[in-house]
Structures are given as structure tokens and as C-alpha cells.
Amino acid sequence: MVKIPFHRLVSTVLAPVLGLSLSAAVPVGAGAHGHDHDDDHGGGSAHVTFGTTPDTIRAGRTVPLQFTVTGADGTISATVTAPDGQGTELDLRAGPRDRYITLVSTEREMPGYYEVAVRDGGEPIGTVAFPAFGGPPGKGADVTLLHDTHFHGAFHHDADTGVSEIAQYMALVEERKDALPHALFTGNGDDIAPSLLAGVFHGEHMIEALNASPLDVDTFGNHDFDFGPENLRERIAESEFPWVTANVRDIDSGEPFAADLGVEPFMLVDVQGVDVGITGLGPENMADVTSLGPDTEQIPAIDAMEEVVPDMRDAGADLVVVTSHLCGPDARELAATVDGIDAIVGDHCAEVLEQPEIINDTLVSFVGDEFDLLGELRMQVEDGEIVDHHFTSHELPPDIAPSPEVQHIVDTWETKLDEAFGEVIGFRLHEWDVRAAQVRSTETGFANYIADTIRMTVDADVALQNGGGIRSDRVFPAETDITRRDVIDVLPFPNTVVMVEVDGATILEALEHGVSRVEAGDGRFPQVSGMRYVWDPDGEPRDPENPESQPGERIVDVTIGGEPLDPDATYTLATNDFLLGGGDGYAMLADGEVLVGPGEGRLLSEVVTDRIVSEGEVESETDGRISRVE
């Protein structure tokens, strides 16, 4: 089907090709909404019958409107009047007796009525009208949310083309904002970390890029705290956009984290006369997976929203919107439990919904991870109620020109990174498979290398490294140079090597914990050194909330130094300071005697770098230390 802009259709296509004429569009009020319509207004005995008439035409939808003309004496013509002539695309085809008009609305379509009138030699023989998105003009407002996917502190700079995905992504946002000037662009946390650049610059690079973007508001994800609360405070102070959070709070005051820097529990934005209230939520397990510090807490999302929704309504919010870093199941539970939430946008767990789910009158929308998609949720609001909505997932066009300002920022930070960490330090004999799906579920060669380095650094009996601490999510090819930036790309967190003395029972408990959520791709999966273990996915997983009654039955065999693990024996265990502090749920490690503490140990990325430099050629293969029962 050929789609032609409305303003070009009149003079260039319809008359010469199909023998029909189409009048220019003019604004029109709400016509009589009809379906099959058969009128005789003159023109002899000619009449028109409409078929397949839509109830509503929405942005991005193709709607064929068929009409049959009988008894015509003159030239048949059709007049299509749209609420917004600019950008409306039409296609008209003719058969032996039937005439078809196919309306293809665009994102510029605004509230109003389409009206189609068919004429015989200038005399009207039939008219049909039907509503566009949102109904008649003058009623309600179009409130649009553009929501992102969380960027993880990454620019995704293509070394071959020099183009950055974030610069292209922001160009797409700018394009959509130009088309929809009243749209709000919301972040949903995890924007400043983790990544190679974040590991070096601790998110400063990302704030500069976000400041140059059309971002209207952001909230906190777990990774925003990866470098500690003081670092995040510095990033907030640098921000030229507001931050909101309902559930990340100061323990003593109960106020939002960094309230003294302007962070609010919610904000109100006037969109075409509608007061849109926006709040934010961090994921439910923040204390387990990041570094909140001793003065910050994350309270359950449901508890937070039961408190904040009434406050938002009391402040005058017509709509309540949550920019969310919850995982899908938690967001759905929130929508089902707490009344009065109009929309939840954003996701922690990279889920993609083709269309929003409606749960308890709440629109729930997820668009994946990093630069996958840009969500566009348009809501037609009348008297504080959403009466209609339309959703579009925009893929990032590979050939879209990047935002010049953001691209310049990317180039500047990439140059700094190359100058500081571009040095070649070794040669990779085997591939480094550090894809998240691998390091969070099975043994990999470079994960072994990292765990071995941890154990060797403090001369421990065994070592344990969480798979979630191994990043980059890609495969580095074999037979290639290793640079300092490669190491930081894989190990971007400021974790230090520590050592604790524990008994064998604690090691077994830690391993059970580590394999308890493999199916969910959880970062707690244990990469190890100095020991071998076999686990059974059909075994009962450990319940971290009730480990005494459900300790787990997935670990079926463990050996240390070639001997079976002795639950009563004492072992030295090397790990990183994040796990020693209970991160990823490894609370059992705190029961041991600390031999090398966080303040004494060296950075994990540094010790791995030093080992690579000393060896030159790096071997990193699997050896069967982790086995799964098939």
C-alpha cells in the first residue's frame, strides 16, 4: 500500500490516478458517529453504503473504510476531513463497484473526528463520521510518556563507526518530542552504572550526557548506588533534571534519599491542563544487591505507594504515574494491590511488553533493557480519567543521526578513557565469555581466572565470586590483545579482595544460596576456586527468607583440595567485600572471622590486571569445577 501525506494527496494522486477528487482537510467538530450509513441526498438514484467502519482510529493503526456506490450518474468523489490534516496519511483504491479509503494515522494524530463524505457529481450521497484517538476535539488532553530502558552507565560507542547508541537514542527521543511537544521523557533508574565508563568515572560521564538530553525526571535503581551513597549524592548535585523516589529513604528522617539536594517523593507537571504526578520506585532487594550505606533504606513498594498515592492526590495530581525499577512480578503485584495508580512505566528485569497490561485500572508498560526500545504511552485524559490509550514501541533506527551534543560528550569521555586505559597489557589465548546468561548459570573460563586470582591474592583455601559482579555481557575473542579497559569493562565495581575464616557448613550454605535462583538469572551464582561442586536444578532451592525450614537441596557434592567438604572443618575463604557485607544475600559469610577486611584488600580489577601483566599470555579455560546434573 502506498502511503501519501495528506497535503500532497489532493493534487498529485487521487484525481489523475483514480478519477476521484479529495477536498483539502479543514477542522471539523464532532460529526454524528455512525456505522453502515445509507442516505439519498440527491444525484438521481445514487446511494452509498458504508461497510467495515471503525469505531475508532488510533495512531499507528491502519483502518480500511469500504463504501459501495450504486446508481451513480456523475463522477464519484470522496471528501475526507481529519482533525489534524498535517501528517495524516491516506490511501484510496477503487474496484469495479466498490471504493475503499484506507486511513493510516500517524503519531501526530490529535483528538477529533474523521468525517468521510461521498459525492455523485458534486451531490452528497452519504456521510459517515467516526472518532479519532481520544474522541471529539475540545474534550480532554493528550498526556504522553516516553519511557526508557535504563542505560547502565553505558554509551555503547561503536569503535568502527564512531557513533554512540546513547547519542542515537537521545536523537530518537528528541524526534518524538518534536512530534509530541507535551510528551514527558522519564528515566527509571540504573542510568549511571554499571559499565566500563562507570567503573572509571563513577557516573559523572552519564550525568553530563543526561543533562544534554530531554530527560524530564529520573529515579533510583540499585546500580545508582554501586559506588556508595556519597558518590550518588555528587551525581545528583550535578544533575540538571529532577530526581524522585517514594521508597528510597533516609533511615532517621524518613525523607527521600538526598532530600537536601532536592530529591522529592513526587513531582507535579502540568500537561495541557492535566496535573500529572510522577513518583519513582527502586527494586525490592536493593539492600542485597548494592551499597545503600548505613543511613539509607529501601522500603517495600506497596507500603511506599499506599502512603504516597494519597499525598499525590491531596497535592492535586489528576494522574499518578510511577517510573519504576521494579521487576515485572513486583510491578504487577503493586498495581493489583494499591488503588489509584494510573500508570507504571519501566522495569528492572528487562521484560518487554508489546502492549501495556491493564491491572486494577493501572497501565503497566515495560520496554526491555538498555537501548532496545523507547516506549511511547499516550493517554487520553478527561476529567482526571484515562478514557483511551495508545502504545508504540520505537526501535532504535540503526541509521538515525546521533544527537550532536550528546555525541560530542560521548567522544570526549571515550577519549579520556582511551588515554588512561587503552594500554595493551597482555594477550588473550582463549575467549572470555562473560555474557550474563553464562556467568550467572555455569562455569566459564575467565570467571575461573577471576576466582583463581582472588584466591591466590590472599593465599586462601577457596574463593567465591558472584557471577553478577562479572559484567560486559559479551564474548572477547581468543587470540586478541588485552587492554586495561577490557579488565575494567568486565570488573567495573570498586570491589576489594577480602578473606574470612568459616566452617564447611557455611561454605555449603553459601553454595546452596548461590544456586537457588539460577533460573531467574540472579547475580548470586557462585563462580569458585579451590573447590568443585555439583548442583541439581531439580533439587529444592534454598529459601533465603526461611533457610532453617528450607535450607536447599540442590548441592549434591562438594570437594575442597580434592577431598570431600567437611562441615565441621575450618577453611579460609576469599571473596569480595560486597559479598562479605551480605551483598546478593550472602549474609552467612558475616558469621566468620574476618582475616582481610575491606579496608585492607586491594581492588579486584587491580589484582586481575597485575596478574595479566605478569603472565603476558593469559590462559583461561574451564576445567569442570562446576557441574550440573542433567
Account of the 3D structure:
By secondary structure, the protein is an alpha+beta fold. It folds into 3 domains: 4-131, Immunoglobulin-like (Sandwich); 146-411, 4-Layer Sandwich (Purple Acid Phosphatase, chain A, domain 2); 422-628, 5'-Nucleotidase, C-terminal domain (5'-nucleotidase,  domain 2). The protein is 24% helix and 28% strand. It contains 15 helices and 35 strands. The chain has a 6-stranded antiparallel β-sheet, covered by helices on one side. It has a 6-stranded mixed β-sheet with strand order 13-14-16-17-19-18, with helices on one face. Strand 30 and strand 31 form a beta hairpin. 49% of the residues are buried.
- Outline the biggest β-sheet: 6 strands, antiparallel
Provide the CATH top-level class of the largest domain: Alpha Beta
Structural class: alpha+beta
Uncertain regions spanning at least 5 consecutive residues: 1-44, 59-63, 83-113, 133-138
The CATH architecture of the largest domain is 4-Layer Sandwich
Name the average pLDDT: 83
Number of helices: 15
What's the count of strands?
35
Gyration radius (Cα, Å) is: 30 Å
How much helix is in the residues? 10-25%
State the distance separating the first and last CA atoms. 52 Å
